[in-house]
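Supplementary Note 3. Input sequence used for the single-chain structure prediction.
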Amino acid sequence: MLGEYRIEGRRAAEIAASVERAVGSGELEPGRLLPPMRELAAQLGVNPNTVAAAYRTLRERGVIETAGRRGSRIRSKPATTGRDYIRVGVPDGVRNLVDGNPDRTLLPGLAEAFAVAAERSDREPVMYGEEAVEPELARLARAELDADSVPDGPVVVTSGSLDAIERVLVTHLKPGDAVAVEDPGWGSLLDLVPALGLRVVAMGVDDEGPVPDDVRRALDAGARALIVTCRAQNPTGAAVTATRARALRSVLKKYPGTLLIEDDHGHRIVDLPLHPLAGTTRHWALVRSVAKAYGPDLRLAVLTGDPVTLDRVHGRQRLGPGWVSHLLQRAVVHLWTSGAVDARAVAASYERRRDALIDALEERGIAARGRSGMNVWVPVPDETGAVARLLHAGWAVAPGARFRVSAPPGLRITVSTLTPGDIEPLADAVASAVEPASARHYA
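The predicted structure, written as discrete structure tokens, is reproduced below.
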């Protein structure tokens, strides 16, 4: 069960530390089944309650997961290590359609923005005790939120979308609480939730967003929080429509105590209107990142929400990092006000690539999804085989296991680097990889 590794310890903390060390060193690999609690207790000569406490600690730290009678096992991406075990290596000469990065040619240059921000910081250095949010950034962000009918609320700046989501979750929830998340959904979020000691409740998502019946079932089952991607959903490209937003609001009105978090990371790269759910419940938050439109290394997101939630987030942030660098905030203000990114042109560029690939796949009898954003999702019967065959053909794509809880298998293809000349060869390769027999007949 554990190979050559032997768990050690007499106290719960020692047993948990022994497992955690082995996971961090690679001696206990993801998916490895742990001994039943009574069996391990007998081996160590301790009370089964001691082992139960150790396993509980490991669950709360995001190291293991428990599936009832099937036992406890190391999570697929344990929080104790930064290694990504479900990532496809990209050999030399293979096209990288794995990483989900934006098109570098669509990102703005940063030198001028940081030079302007640095010059101002030389004249007006930010000192301890000053406001955490740059006033001009807050004003610009709030104006865009108002234009998109997001309810009024304070503005907080965080170090990216995931940082914002984590801070909101911990302000309201405690270990053991359940969170409804999209399935398939953002892999980092699927790892973050259990790493916080929270339970994932999967809900289906189609091209229009989360499926209302699944949301209702998740909330009926006791989920205390709901996380929704507004547009450019990762990995399927779903975007919440006006009709779907009305249906979701109707569900949420019956659960006013739900913590609602909306992730609008597709802002400025998607030419589809926002249909916010914000304000339907007592506690809510909506976050917008600059990563996709201006560059992943700009670790900045704007967060708004109800006053209680934002006050808690700001207060906890003040006790930790204090604030996000005003140098970075001022650089983002310059990028926004200088028109460094033509949002419509960026959205149109990604749309052309997505649509071209989806149409080419449809011609070959392969269904694919990608309503917005920079990814296309392809359902497949054999995920591992399809990834391997595509890699052999010169194309590296992301296995759907990185994005799934219980949803059927699939592949995520990032279209950011595709050229018009890539579409037909890639579609042929996907068709051959997904349905080899039918693909040979098609050829």
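Residues 95 and 395 are 5 Å apart (CA to CA). The longest strand covers residues 199-206.
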